Amino acid sequence: MNNWTDIRSLLFVPAGKLDKWEKAVASGADAICVDLEDSVPPDEKDEARADVQTFLEKGVAAEKKLILRINSPESEAGKSDLEMILTLSRMIYGLMIPKIDNASPLKKVINKLGASGKSIPLFPLIESAQALENGRDILSCNTVDGAVFGGHDLAMQLGCSKEWDVLATYRSEFIRSAGGLNLNLIDMPWFDLNDVAGLKKETDNAQRFGFTAKAAIHPAQVKTINAVFSPTKDEVAEAGEMIRIFEEAGGHAVAWKGKVLEPPVINQAKRIVDRARNLNLS
């Protein structure tokens, strides 16, 4: 299930603005998240859910990785979202699950989908101190294909600001919780639409920390994000050379251009080559 190497960017589209779908697709985002949660006022949830159901059944989004962010699975709105999903005749790429502090509500969603014969990749939002504390249990759940660092809500809960240095420790906890699980690890959006340099800097930092993608709240942000998370031709060529040299050495550690090539290094090189292949960059 893990298609983690072919998502660099995830663009949010409010459920009430599905007329923006074509612009979202044109942005080049690898995945698009239709949001039934924070972008929809409480008294408009039912109407938005019905509109999303009609949109999905028409098959408009069939050729795009569409992830649907539902409401909290323990809320009445979230339960209604899940019931709607169970009636869909067309599969969606994934479900983003917000407002969970531990694995229990996620397992309930998995069981509910499974009982109806559906297996949809899940993308839990890690957006509270409790969720960070239980991160490994949450991310190890069956059918979890990725996770989103919900730094905005986390900062609101902790009473801190959202600057990179303030949230760096919590990002590190998030990355550590996902270690070795081969998941899409999606960093929080950059909220200043006029600060392209700030977006580039934060996306660079996210890539260095181990994130594989970043969320966007405007189509104009996607190009910058995709560029950062795309391996360059030189990086792909070097990774391929490292793999070749290591294999010629019979899998033994070998020195190459001042580096020691050993299994962990080669595994990273293989991820670079796989990512480039999945993104049609090689």
Provide keyphrases for this structure.
globular; 282 residues; 8-stranded parallel barrel; alpha/beta; 2 domains; TIM Barrel; two-stranded antiparallel sheet
Helix content: 40-55%
The chain-level mean pLDDT equals: 93
Q: Could you describe the largest sheet, including whether it forms a barrel?
A: 8 strands, parallel, barrel
Structural class: alpha/beta
Shape: globular
- Could you tell me how far the N terminus lies from the C terminus, measured between alpha carbons in angstroms? 22 Å
Could you list the spans in which at least 5 consecutive residues all have pLDDT below 50? none
- CATH class membership of the largest domain: Alpha Beta
Helix tally equals 12
Order of helices and strands, N to C?
EHEHEHEHEHHEHHEHEHHEEH
Number of strands: 10
Q: What is the CATH superfamily of the largest domain?
A: Phosphoenolpyruvate-binding domains
Structure characterization notes:
The protein is α/β, with parallel strands linked by helices. The chain folds into two domains: 4-228, Phosphoenolpyruvate-binding domains (TIM Barrel, Alpha-Beta Barrel); 233-278, no CATH class. Helix content is 46%, strand content 15%. The protein has twelve helices and ten strands. The chain has helices at residues 21-26, 45-57, 76-87, 103-115, 129-133, 135-139, 151-158, 164-177, 196-209, 222-228, 233-248, 263-278; strands spanning 9-14, 31-35, 65-69, 94-97, 122-126, 146-149, 184-187, 213-216, 254-256, 259-261. The strands form two sheets. Strands 1-2-3-4-5-6-7-8 form an eight-stranded parallel beta barrel. A hairpin with a 2-residue loop joins strand 9 and strand 10 (259-261). Helix 2 runs parallel beside helix 3 (76-87) and helix 11 (233-248) packs across helix 12. The longest helix has 16 residues, at 233-248. It is globular. The two termini are 22 Å apart. The mean pLDDT is 93.
